[in-house]
Amino acid sequence: MEYSGLRRLFILFLLWAVAVTVSGQNSGNLVYNPGFELEAPDGFPLGWWAEQWDQTSGATTYQVVAEGAYAGDKCFLLTNHQPNDARIMQEIKVEPDTIYRIGCRVRAEGLTAATGGANLSILNHNYSSAEYFNTNGWWELVEFYVRTPKPGPSVLRLALRLGGWGALNTGKAYFDEVVVEAVPKPPIGALVIELESEKQAAEEQTPAEGVASAGPPHRDDRAGKRYLVLFSLVVTAFLVWAEKRWAKR
Asked: Could you tell me the pTM of the whole model?
């Protein structure tokens, strides 16, 4: 194959690699794989991991489902078959003293208890959104604004959750289109929650309120994708150089 043909082939490969890299994250959104379109070989969404209170086999199931998504092709279904506090999580790097819009779409059905509904929580800053128990088949918008504490950069331990501390529940909770993004200022009239420091939040939680992990985090593959793009750029540059050398012969 001539060098020009090889160059075209690798340019196409480069474009594919770039598309794969950006597919897991929307512009401005700090959440990786916010719509659960990317799955690990075991079917769990890339970039997320699970925790639950009741570790009994079959107490809770986690599924990426391809029907009824709010946007895209997929959404996430968390089902508590027994009373439980279960969630999928992701750590989001944030800047200090910054306002963030945090939200997702949620659908809830079949919940049996009056507390511990489907919600969006920031575990390491001791904050949870409003809870949903039955959305009548509709996707509801969960959205709030927070200001991160001033001392130093931090992370938000974001949790898509069914249940709560001391509030176990059964039923189904669907989640889609998760977003965490910095904003210069909130909309007029919007409440901004001043997050506690991690130390304050930890002091307010008793040991009995902790949960055990349901398994190790699923690896975030963003770094590997960046290396793929870098490799493609290097190979493409080499082919361009080689083609010029070939033309001089």
From this structure: 0.74
